[in-house]
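B., you asked whether I could sanity-check this one before it goes into the benchmark set. Here's the sequence:
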Amino acid sequence: MFKAVLVSIIVGVACAILSCFLVLKGWSLLGDAISHAVLPGVVLAYMLGIPFGLGAFVFAMLAVTLIGYIKSNTKIKEDAVMGIVFTTLFALGLMLISKIISSVDLTHVLFGEVLGISDDSAWYTFIILTTVSLIVLAFQRIFLVFCFDPIHAQSLGLPVRFIHYAFLSLLAITITGSIQTVGIILVIAMLITPGSTAFLLTKKFSTMLQIAVGISVLSSLVGAYSSYYFNVATGGTIVFVQGCIFLAVFAYQTIQTSRKNRLVKVTA
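And here's what the prediction gave me:
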């Protein structure tokens, strides 16, 4: 149980940090695309008897490369390109699963199984995602400039294209490292919800990071323990707690806005 909680927290922190940048950049769909695109890599890794993370990372980078190449050489908008690439690769993964892997393995790949994670997988997740988190935090100013204004970043002499692919690589690594904890489907929510919730509460990026990480840690603790005692899926419970926190914050913001509007009308 301690191992499951620790791994869940590490995954939550890494996803929360990246989610802040994704929300600011407007790249939430990109996290969705990469998460789905890694499925055939996981299946092929299963067939070859190699670590899931390796196969997932290869297909994550393939998806990133395809999206970038198609976007650069056509008039199709980026969101449409993402949709085409990730649905095609996800469909390929489902085809492979239907021929090779049992339904039990399918559930594990799609929704994770943190309570049954092995020691080797736990160490892999811990080392990989801790490294990613430290790298992003160390270069957060560069990534922040890139997310807010790539043109300004280029005028400052920053290698925008390298930063672009470096960030996508870190995102791909985070997704592949999170598969065994929350699965391919639910990692999307962990890459969107904490940053979105924090964005509702503050406009200062450093505070946004702290709030997003705090929400992820809290939801990982509550979700992991709740899933154990209520005998429900751990990944789903963690994401559900994050969703409840978002709805609570949204309701609070709505009430506050209504009160302010009423005061303005009364004053006027």
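One thing to flag: Residues 227 and 234 are 5 Å apart (CA to CA). Otherwise nothing jumped out at me.
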